[in-house]
């Protein structure tokens, strides 16, 4: 029998001690007093962390919340960053941590349901009971992954800016030259309407898994998953061309997955809040919508860059009908194929 939620030996009480440092003893005003900041500063911190505003009488904060708020204020006092940057970083932590927690919990629920042959409710209760055993490892892996990815980004940044020409520092130009595009499933909307929730979840999971496997193993990165689509990016055109062709080939050869279409554009972009923006992103989004099933659609500038690179032994390009695109005018389009693969019909 499960103990009452308020019992000190209940699962949730033990998780409270493990994850947030024990007793919820402070109101927002008391949190601010303990951290020696104004109540507004404390409220801004809590909101930036992604949590709902609290009632004045609600005791929700622990000693760990006090310590985190004090650490944030010490970072500001050091002048290493300003308040705007701190809020941006807190929001980043909030967004990523919320997504990560959801992903990990749902993965554990699925694991318990599959391996123990449980219904969803039972699997979630078992997950709660088992969380104390797996949480320390999850936390260690999270810190490890963050440090590894941070170093990887810093290493790429150092290499890129060491070889940049002075002409690339134009003040009105987007700062990052990247090759990017989208891959999306064809007929997803109509198919998802026919599938049950578990079948739809399996479809999305397999799509994301295959996409992530191909993209990361070949040296590119996923910017974000958008349901039936993946937004990928690479530091150079050669890597991106290899990745996008491999994606289409992998999906076309896989069972129990919808066919895909893709786009590839090279150009200058800006990165903010973990996302990527700029004209090439908008163009790539339009091109994937116009691509034929199994095709990789490019704009003329990207196609010319591939031709100029002399990769004719590996790839070939075929010009297809230009299309009018709102805000972009008439866009010349090309299809990219690896040699010895089937050319999609248009």
UniProtKB/TrEMBL annotation:
InterPro entries: A/G_cyclase, Adenylyl/Guanylyl_Cyclase_3/4, Nucleotide_cyclase. Residues 179-288 form the Guanylate cyclase domain. CDD domains: CHD. Pfam families: Guanylate_cyc. Gene3D superfamilies: Nucleotide cyclase. One of its GO terms (molecular function) is adenylate cyclase activity. SUPFAM superfamilies: Nucleotide cyclase. Belongs to the adenylyl cyclase class-3 family. This is Guanylate cyclase domain-containing protein. It comes from Boudabousia liubingyangii. The lineage of its organism: Bacteria, Bacillati, Actinomycetota, Actinomycetes, Actinomycetales.
């Amino acid at each position: 029998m499960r103990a009452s939620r308020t019992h000190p030996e209940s699962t949730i009480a033990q998780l409270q001690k493990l994850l947030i440092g024990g007793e919820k003893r402070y109101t927002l005003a008391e949190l601010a007093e303990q951290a020696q900041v104004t109540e507004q500063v404390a409220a801004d911190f809590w909101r930036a962390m992604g949590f709902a505003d609290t009632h004045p009488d609600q005791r929700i904060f622990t000693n760990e919340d006090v310590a985190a708020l004090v650490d944030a204020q010490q970072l500001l006092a050091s002048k290493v960053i300003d308040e705007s940057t701190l809020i941006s970083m807190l929001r980043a932590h909030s967004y990523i941590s919320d997504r990560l927690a959801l992903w990990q919990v749902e993965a554990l629920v699925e694991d318990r349901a599959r391996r123990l042959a449980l219904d969803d409710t039972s699997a979630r209760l078992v997950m709660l009971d088992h969380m104390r055993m797996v949480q320390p490892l999850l936390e260690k892996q999270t810190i490890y992954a963050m440090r590894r990815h941070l170093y990887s980004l810093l290493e790429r940044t150092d290499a890129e800016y060491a070889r940049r020409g002075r002409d690339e520092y134009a003040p009105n130009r987007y700062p990052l030259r990247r090759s990017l595009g989208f891959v999306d499933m064809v007929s997803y909307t109509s198919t998802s309407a026919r599938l049950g929730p578990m079948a739809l979840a399996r479809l999305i999971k397999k799509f994301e898994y295959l996409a992530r496997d191909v993209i990361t193993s070949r040296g590119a990165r996923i910017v974000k998953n958008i349901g039936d689509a993946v937004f990928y990016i690479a530091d150079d055109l050669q890597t991106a061309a290899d990745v996008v062709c491999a994606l289409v080939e992998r999906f076309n050869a896989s069972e129990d997955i919808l066919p895909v279409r893709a786009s590839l554009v090279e150009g200058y972009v800006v990165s903010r809040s973990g996302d990527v923006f700029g004209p090439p992103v908008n163009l790539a989004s339009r091109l994937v919508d116009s691509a034929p099933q199994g095709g990789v659609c490019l704009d003329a500038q990207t196609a010319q860059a591939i031709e100029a690179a002399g990769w004719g032994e590996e790839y070939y390009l075929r010009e297809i009908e230009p299309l009018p695109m709102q805000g972009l005018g008439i866009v010349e389009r090309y299809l990219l194929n690896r040699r010895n693969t089937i050319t999609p019909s248009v």
